[in-house]
Every structure is written in structure tokens, then in C-alpha cells.
Amino acid sequence: MKTIDSIPTGKISRATRLVRTGVKVGINQLKYYGDTLVDPQNAKEKLNQNNASDIYEGLKNLKGSALKVAQMLSMEKNILPKAYVEQFSLAQFSVPPLSAPLVRKTFYKYFGKHPEDLFDTFNSQSIAAASIGQVHQATKDGKELAIKIQYPGIADSISSDLAIVKPVAIKMFNIKGKDSDKYFEEVEQKLLEETDYTLEVKQSQQMVLDCKHIEHLIFPNYYPNLSNQRIITMDWMQGEHLSEFTKVNTDTKLADRLGQALWDFYMYQMHELKRVHADPHPGNFLVTTKGELVAIDFGCIKVVPDAFYIPYFELAIPENINNPEMFTQKLYELEILTPRDTPEEIAFFSTLFHEMLSLFTQPMHKETFDFSDETFFSKVADLSEKYSKDTQLRKMNGNRGSKHFLYINRTFFGLYNLMNDLGAKVVVNNYKTLKSNIV
């Protein structure tokens, strides 16, 4: 893959790149109108493919928060068209890497030394590159190491990137109201945390310590003395990315075992630690030849406050979902309903969230759940499509819910998709845990 020697970091230069991408999308829209006359059956799919390709091409060299948003969207399999999911998923671990000279320059800036001065061997060619950083192989004192290097200027461009994206997001999600800034502030704060590699090392070491007891789940060791604000050194973990593993695996028992490890990992974080790895995409997990699951990235950790945790999971209990008084009370506690809502808005969003929660919490209602059940995921997709086309919803204020929904819902959507990719049947047994934690 072709390497890059520089990354645009200024607000104007990044905005210019995004505007160019917008022009291409506009041209695609004009072509689409012509295609509807010539080939109406395939016109929409062609538009999606062209737009997805052009948007990704525009973002991949910018890297940073713009590309991170695309990576996050790639997990929304039931919301985005397939063409977007396929293109944006490349942001997980396959984007143009920094050139060797730029890698050396970055090392010298933050260590005052070049890579070869710190390690016995260092591969200047990137092994994997994603939205915020890329990974290199190295050795030291007989240990194989993975070195994650953050792209230059990424942390400094987060605020300006989000300022550019904000008007588009407001229109796309129909966000209104004076308190809509809370969502953008939440995203900005988490992205700033993800670019603080010193914080990530601390979070990673704590997560390893807290979760090392979970069966069939392993982690790398982290080396603070060889890490800093923009570079992380950890053990090199041999394995296949989860997305590649699921494409070829035919061993259902192995899939169930890995799925159980993944499920237990997330449920322990959510219900015991109240602190969760909120970036569950396939690029963050490996499968070893021994059939162990490896978790390798803890830059995005979401703390779950009790004020959100308790009402959120109370609505995972069927008796509460089907108790109108209790259900309405929890919707207010979660800021889904507000005192400013009209009777029409209260009725509409109460119905919408009752339908969504009744379906989405089904895996938590049983002792076991089969995530290979395509009927369940088809219902989720159908519900997403139903409301994406709902003209009444477009007229409503889309500014709904606590800011904590952004990363908690992202966590569960990502987890469900990974479990579905594995086709795993697991012991959920979460209902008792929920009742014991919230009573």
C-alpha cells in the first residue's frame, strides 16, 4: 500500500479536503438522477457505492476524527447501506500508513531517539494502519513487540474536524434544541482521550488486571517505559483479526467458546466494573491458533454512572418495559422524554422506544441466546428501516436521550454484530445479574 509523507492538520486544509469530497458526492447525485431513467432498479445501489467510495477516499488520507467517525459508522450494519459498511470498515485496520521517514521523525520528536536506538529490531513498514494510529513490529530483549504510533497532528485537529462535521450531523439526525451540544462534547471528549496514549496505557493495564480471570480471553502486556503520549509499546500478539476468522471458521464449538469469552468480557465490564471498552469492532480482537480471544485496544473506555446505568438496565427487564407507569418514568430519567415535549411527541417516542427496547433487549431475557438467529437480526434491520423512512419522525426533535447513550448503545450494537459474525450461542444468564445489581 502507498505510504503518505504528511497529513493535513490545519482547519482550512482539512476543510478544503472535505469540501472536495462533498463536491464529488454532489456530482454522484446528479448522475443518479440520470441513472433512474436508464437503470432504475440498480440506480440507488450504484449511488451508494459511488458515494461510499468517494467519501472513504476523501477521509483516509485525513485520518483522525473524520476517519474515526467512518469507522464507528461501519459498525451500524442495520442502519447504513451495505456499500458504506464495506467501505468504512476498511478504516478499522487498512488505511494508507505513514512513510518510514515520517515514522522516524515522530519517534525522535517524542523520545529524542530513533526507533533503532530503542529496540533491537524495528520494522519501518507498518503492519496495520487505522484511523488514529498505525502498528509496527519490533523486538527487544528477546520479546516480540507491537509499537502503536499516533499520526502527527491528529489530537490537535479533533475540535476543528467536529466543527465541520457538526452541521451535517445536526441535519442528518434532526437534532434541535439548546442542549444538543452535549452529544458533540461527549464525542470530542472521548476522541481526545483516545489520542492520549499515556492514558491508554494506564487504562489498558487496569483492564488487563480486572479481566484476566475471564476464560479464553488474553491480553498483551504494556510497557510504560517504552511508551509516551503518542507512542505505545505492548506485546506482539499472534492471531487472526476476528473479521477474517469469522469468514472461514466452520467450528461451531470454537465460535461458541469465543463468543462466550466476548460476552462475559463485556458483561463483567458493564455490570461489575461500570467501565466498558466502548470500541467493539473486529480490528480490536484477534483469534489465536489455540482458540483464544485477544483484546488489543483500550483507548476508548466509557465510564457508566449509576444515574444512567440503573434506569438503562431497568428497561432491560420485561416487567418494567411492559409496565406503562414504570416505562414512562424511566424514559424521563434517561432524557428520552422531556418536560418540554408535546403530547404528540410523548406518544410517538414512547411507542418508538417501547418497540425498540422490547426487541433489542431480547438476548438479556433468557438463560442462553443464539446470535446466529437471523430472524432476530432481520427484525432489528426491519425496525431500523421502518423508522429511517418515517416521515413523522423527521418532523420531531431528534435531540433524545442522555449523552451516555452514544457510547453505551455503540458498545451493544458493536457487541451484537460481533456475536452475530461469530454465529455464537452463549450462556447469557444476565437477567439475574441485572436484577441483583439494580434492586
Using the CA coordinates, give the radius of gyration.
22 Å
How much of the sequence is in beta strands? 5-15%
Number of helices: 19
Instruction: Assign a percent range to the helix content.
Output: 55-70%
Low-confidence runs: none
Mean pLDDT: 83
* Oligomerization category of the chains in this entry: single chain
Shape: globular
Please provide the count of β strands. 13
Counting helices, strands and paired strands, the structural category is: alpha+beta
Distance between the termini: 54 Å
**Biggest beta-sheet profile:** 5 strands, antiparallel
What can you tell me about this protein's structure?
- It is a single chain.
- By secondary structure, the chain is an alpha+beta fold.
- A hairpin with a 5-residue loop joins strand 9 (285-287) and strand 10 (293-295).
- Among the domains are: 11-92, no CATH class; 237-439, no CATH class.
- The strands form four sheets. Strands 1, 2, 3, 4 and 6 form a five-stranded antiparallel sheet that branches. Strands 5-10-9-7 form a four-stranded mixed sheet. Strands 8-11 form a two-stranded antiparallel ribbon.
- Helices cover 56% and strands 11% of the residues.
- It has helices at 11-38, 40-60, 64-73, 82-88, 100-111, 115-118, 154-172, 181-194, 197-211, 242-248, 252-273, 306-314, 318-321, 324-333, 343-360, 374-388, 391-395, 405-422, 430-438, and strands spanning 121-122, 128-129, 133-140, 143-150, 217-218, 231-235, 240-241, 275-277, 285-287, 293-295, 301-303, 368-370, 425-427.
